[in-house]
Design a protein that fits this description.
The complex is a heterodimer of chains A (499) and B (146). With 499 residues, chain A is mainly alpha-helical. Chain A has one domain (2-496). Helices cover 72% and strands 1% of the residues of chain A. Chain A has helices spanning 2-11, 14-32, 38-49, 54-79, 88-99, 103-135, 141-153, 163-176, 203-221, 240-262, 268-282, 294-318, 324-335, 344-347, 349-380, 385-402, 407-425, 431-453, 465-491, 493-496, and strands spanning 180-181, 188-189. Chain B has 146 residues and is mainly α. Chain B has 2 domains: 2-58; 69-145, no CATH class. Chain B is built from 6 helices and no strands. Chain B has helices at residues 2-21, 39-58, 69-87, 89-103, 109-130, 141-145. The chains are: A mainly alpha (499), B mainly alpha (146). Chains A and B meet through helix 8, strand 2, helix 9, helix 16 and helix 17 of A and helix 1, helix 2, helix 3, helix 4 and helix 5 of B.
């Protein structure tokens, strides 16, 4: 109870509250801007937080995460362009509603569902993260190694690429993490005589490159895309009838989103898809879905926002990112010298609870931002890309330089951006690369420690029940979807004939 | 063509990295605890090679359109920025931002001025004054640093 109150007290600094409100506005703008999303926004703002104290720094990043995830719905509803991929399913019903002159009702429902989903997930985070951390308290290096392998195996199902390509991208990230001094032997690897590389490739320039600069090149392909805005008179809160219709959907999707978020590497996009599908499956009027169903908006938005809280559970409790943006936040924790994991809830409990409270607060803040500012923020979408992206590039480069004040980081950011663009073009998602880079160092360290502990008899890892469980889960994560698909194809002739 | 070209490129890169990893210093066996420094990167590289072979053989190829000229121009501007940044980081940023906006179709002088002068200047002063970041000396930054 004491850390809970201490965390709240730490957050009650008026300067910090103003900063968080500004971050909420910033997050909503980032979520509404074309091509920018929560992950890119967090990566671009990471350098700004470096000179701050850990609580405001990480609170800003989590605020950006929550606010930008919510803001994707604004553009999804008003211009049929999801601000973030997590709001793609919101387009399906939000835009048809907006075209019927009910944009205000759709935005109102998106705001309320997002807030409820977000608050439920943060409460789950407050309860589940310390429990999960306590469970992990007795983990030895082999358990941690197996857990990290499991976290990396979840990369197969995220991102835009196929599972094989996602794992290659993740493994490439792990490979990049081997650059620099070997932690156990201090032998230099792949440094090519650059002293700056001795400490390894920094997370920040790579993240800025693969999320920010590569997006600039993607936007260069889409210069001719036109955006059409639906006229909106005012936000109209959903009526009592709407609430009566959607409350079960909101609760169900919040549960789904939180659970999906807790799974390592899965994020808001997967949550919103499942939340939307389940809303349709349980609906009394499934025929309305895709044509302007208020339940569709509630199902998608409650799920994607609740995934933000869920994703923070493994991030803080185990040091395994629950989503791409959580990976950036994890990088932020590491840059500040904080060690996520079981000790976070004993040695840095005030910090952990301050982050929980900040997430709760931002979910309340964006009720006001969403209800009163949506009309204004929707206009942000019309900032010409010709002006926006040169400024984003300037921010990216200065941000990449700022961390270590090294020009090498600037070139790493540009190189990562170019690599990221070609990866995306050839179907290799950049998200696994980022997560692989973050987890790579941990993976190698824990493997090395395990081998020392087991006296080089690696097969003894399989004799430890929890380690074995994580390896089995890894195999299920890698091959499960493949077998499920085959099983469904055999059982469902409609699927097997492709009808 | 990319079905085989991309995995081949990845395999070639991994082959080169694998060879480089064989040049790492080795820890004498008597002092060794755990793995040699090259072991872990080599394991990862082998995994990437195996998976790339699988991609080439089993993955469904994706249809790619041609890379638009604007992307090539943007890439060329990256190179220009890298060269100009040798003279001054903010000079490079100004030139890049202005040229990028121009090549993407922006013609309004105020917009070009904003991206070329106003935003780099604001970002410079934000980082210099608020975050106390010291930028590398150059043609323009010397005007401020003296």
């Amino acid at each position: 109870m004491e850390p809970l109150i201490a965390g709240l007290t730490a957050l009650m600094d008026p300067n910090l509250l103003v900063l968080l409100f500004a971050a909420t506005l910033g997050g909503v703008i980032i979520g509404a801007l074309p091509g920018l999303n929560a992950t890119t926004g967090a990566a671009l703002l990471l350098p700004f937080t470096i000179t701050m104290e850990p609580i405001p720094a990480i609170a800003i990043l989590t605020t950006i995460y929550c606010a930008a995830t919510f803001a994707g719905a604004i553009t999804a509803i008003l211009i049929n362009t999801p601000g973030t991929s997590a709001s793609a399913t919101t387009c399906l019903d939000g835009f048809p509603l907006a075209q019927r002159g009910e944009a205000g009702r759709a935005l109102g429902m998106a705001t309320i569902s997002s807030t409820v989903g977000g608050i439920i997930s943060v409460i789950c985070l407050m309860l589940a993260a310390p429990l999960m951390a306590r469970m992990a308290y007795n983990f030895a290096p082999p358990e941690y190694f197996a857990l990290t392998v499991f976290g990396i195996s979840m990369l197969a199902t995220i991102g835009d690429g196929t599972p094989l390509k996602n794992i290659i991208a993740g493994a490439f990230g792990v490979f990049l993490a081997t650059v620099g001094k070997d932690l156990l032997t201090t032998v230099e690897r792949f440094t090519f005589g650059f002293n700056e590389l001795s400490e390894g490739i920094g997370f920040v320039p790579v993240m800025i490159g693969i999320f920010g600069i590569s997006e600039l090149l993607v936007q260069a392909e889409r210069l001719s895309v036109e955006r059409r805005q639906v006229f909106m008179k005012a936000i109209k809160l959903p009526g009592r009838e709407d609430y009566a219709r959607v409350w079960k959907t909101v609760l169900r999707s919040s549960g789904i989103g939180t659970f999906i978020g807790i799974l390592p590497a899965e994020g808001a996009t997967v949550a919103s898809m499942i939340g939307y599908n389940e809303a349709r499956r349980w609906s009394k009027k499934p025929e309305e879905f895709g044509k302007g169903s208020i339940e569709g908006i509630a199902g998608s938005e409650a799920a994607n926002n609740s995934a933000t809280g869920g994703a923070m559970v493994p991030t803080l409790a185990l040091g395994i990112p629950g989503s791409p943006t959580a990976a950036v936040i994890l990088a932020g924790l590491m840059v500040h010298g904080l060690q996520p994991g079981p000790t976070m809830f004993t040695e840095q409990a005030t910090f952990a609870y301050a982050i929980f409270w900040s997430m709760l607060l931002v979910n309340v803040m964006f009720i006001f931002v969403g209800l009163f500012g949506a009309k204004i923020f929707a206009r942000v979408t019309f900032v010409p890309v010709q002006i926006l992206w040169p400024i984003v590039f300037t921010f990216s480069i200065v941000g990449a330089y700022a961390l270590d004040q090294s020009m090498l980081d600037v070139y790493i950011a540009i190189g990562s951006g170019v690599i990221g663009y070609f990866m995306r073009r050839f179907g290799y998602s950049v998200v696994p690369l980022a997560i692989g880079l973050i987890l790579g160092g941990m993976l190698e360290k824990r493997l090395g420690q395990s081998l020392i502990m087991l006296d080089d008899q690696w097969w003894l890892m399989f004799a430890r029940p929890l380690t074995l469980l994580f390896f089995v889960l890894t195999i299920l994560a890698l091959f499960g979807p493949f077998f499920w698909r085959r099983l469904f194809k055999q059982r469902d002739p409609m699927v097997s004939t492709g009808e | 063509m990319t079905r085989f070209a991309v995995p081949t490129g990845i395999i070639a890169f991994c082959g080169l990295a694998f060879w480089l990893s064989t040049q790492f210093d080795k820890v004498p066996p008597i002092l060794l605890r755990g793995m040699q420094p090259a072991d872990f990167p080599q394991m990862v590289l082998i995994l990437i090679i195996v998976l790339s072979v699988c991609v080439a053989l089993f993955d469904r190829p994706i249809e790619h359109g041609r890379i638009p000229a604007t992307v090539w121009v943007s890439l060329a501007l990256f190179a220009t920025f890298a060269l100009a940044a040798q003279v001054d980081l903010f000079l490079g940023l100004g030139i890049f931002a202005c040229a990028l906006a121009w090549t993407w179709g922006e013609r309004r002088p105020w917009a070009l001025g904003t991206v070329a002068f106003v935003s780099p200047a604001l970002i410079f002063f934000l980082f210099d004054q608020v975050f106390n970041i010291r930028f590398p000396r150059g043609l323009l930054t010397n005007l401020w640093y003296g």
